[in-house]
Amino acid sequence: MHVFVTGGSGQTGPAVVAELVAAGHTVTGLARSDTAAARLASLGATPHRGSLDDLDSLRRGADAVDGVLHMAFGGDYADPDDLVRRDRAAVEALGQALVGSGKPLVSTSGTLVTRAGRVSTEQDAPDPGSVAAFRIPGERACLRFAESGVRASVVRLAPTVHGPGDHGFIPALIAAARRAGVSAYLGDGLNRWPAVHRADAARLYRLALEKAPAGSVLHGVGESAVTIRSIAERIARTLDLPTTSLTLDQAAAHLGNPFLARFFSLDVPVSSQHTQALLDWTPRHPTLLEDLDTGDYFDPEASIRAEEIWLPHHSRR
């Protein structure tokens, strides 16, 4: 299969591109810069110059292939309407190129669109009041193409996709612990997060392209419910620091980012049992806590990268 991929040079994307190439698929990847193009080429993909805002480039990319995998997402997070507009427009441009073809369109959402406080499944509708509600319009736009002769499906990724070179939420916790001399959680710390290893997520994307039925919602989750406290305690043990409980306001100051504090306060366990059964997908790579023990999370460079991403410029060391 010849696959057009957006987001192939990001954090999760390179593992997905490598998985597709290793399985014998041909990959063309959207590249908005020379750096992205070089990264894609190094993985065995052909760069296709363009961006999410260049809808003509998206249509051309989708027109020339046997399937599309959309992972790219971006814009101004302070302006959710902008995020919604850009993602929905990109999904619609990609999907329109596939109408009536029976070809696969796999788009990306996040498990944080589900309702907090209970274990959510693939059959649960997204919650308009969720912290990631800005992902819902793109998710719905993709699934609507299932009614137009497209084998459309959505992968909801866990908020923590862990593995080498992670610059997401967990490195931000580690960087904050280094700065403050204490590893923190909110309240009793028993709120639950799903997680998935990047290599397991890459295999799920490949299986979705190859055989997910039209209209499928898939959960990219290897672990349904890792407590934030267990993460904080593992960080504390490795850095030889104490742990502490914080309020939401205290966590915002500790992390240097109210957005992060809100995310780490959520209790959002998610099941992937249906996805595993549907696609014969079994997560088999290290768990998040195992990755904290054996991975590169405590390399000082990882904390520096996290601060560059998550901290306002005036708050960095």
Which key phrases capture this entry?
317 residues; alpha/beta; Rossmann fold; UDP-galactose 4-epimerase, domain 1; 7-stranded parallel β-sheet; 3-stranded mixed β-sheet; 13 helices
Computed Rg? 19 Å
Beta content: 15-25%
Backbone shape: globular
- Helix and strand run: EHEHEHEHEHEEHEEHEEHEHHHHH
Count all strands and give the number.
Answer: 12
Write the CATH homologous superfamily of the largest domain.
NAD(P)-binding Rossmann-like Domain
Total helical elements: 13
Low-confidence stretches: none
Average pLDDT: 93
CATH topology of the largest domain: Rossmann fold
Query: What percent of the residues sit in helical stretches (DSSP H or I)?
Result: 40-55%
* Text of the CATH class of the largest domain: Alpha Beta
Summary?
With 317 residues, this protein is of the alpha/beta class. Helices cover 42% and strands 19% of the residues. The protein has two domains: 186 residues, Rossmann fold; 124 residues, UDP-galactose 4-epimerase, domain 1, CATH 3.90.25.10.
Task: Explain the overall architecture.
It is a single chain. The chain is an alpha/beta fold and 317 residues long. It folds into two domains: 2-160 and 196-222, NAD(P)-binding Rossmann-like Domain (Rossmann fold, 3-Layer(aba) Sandwich); 163-194 and 224-315, Alpha-Beta Complex (UDP-galactose 4-epimerase, domain 1), CATH 3.90.25.10. Helix content is 42%, strand content 19%. It has 13 helices and twelve strands. It has helices at residues 13-22, 34-42, 55-63, 80-96, 136-144, 169-180, 198-211, 228-239, 248-255, 258-264, 273-279, 288-294, 300-310, and strands spanning 2-6, 26-31, 46-49, 67-70, 104-110, 151-157, 160-162, 183-186, 192-197, 216-220, 223-227, 243-246. The strands form three sheets. It has a seven-stranded parallel beta sheet, with helices on both faces. The chain has a three-stranded mixed beta sheet with strand order 7-9-11. A two-stranded parallel ribbon has the order 8-12. Helix 2 (34-42) links the parallel strand 2 and strand 3. Helix 3 (55-63) runs parallel beside helix 4, helix 6 (169-180) packs across helix 8 and helix 9 packs across helix 10 (258-264).
